[in-house]
Fold:
Amino acid sequence: MATSRSGGPARSSLLSLVVVLVVAVGIWAINGGDPGTPTGNSGATPIATDPAAPAAPARDDGTVALADLPPEAAEVVGLIDAGGPYPYDQDGGTFGNFEGLLPDRERGYYEEFTVPTPGEDDRGARRIVAGADGELYWTADHYASFERISR
Structure:
């Protein structure tokens, strides 16, 4: 008498779980392994509250002057203008705008760059996101809020 070796529903469920995990890891890897912090979108762009990086004074038009940002931000903008080289492998990688806080553009339009935080032993939370048309955005709270940089 022959017996079935399919394993039934338990094996099918396990296989489905493995497939979902493989797809999730693949998406994570394609996005550079740093998809940002999902925050939802209330329609408002909150001001950064990171005590290590006080909020830069925002203007009435919602922009922040490059001169009002930490000096490391100006150094990174200089590297962006020069086309590199960048100190972190992830710099120049695609920023996905998964939070939906920046204007909606096609994938690959935005690139992200690390702004080092003195005293941090990792990349920290500060970033500049550059659009393909030259616009720059500052975040001191790892993508929870943005301000457009004016020069």
Summary: The longest strand covers residues 110-114. The two ends are 80 Å apart (CA to CA). Helices lie at 8-30, 71-82.
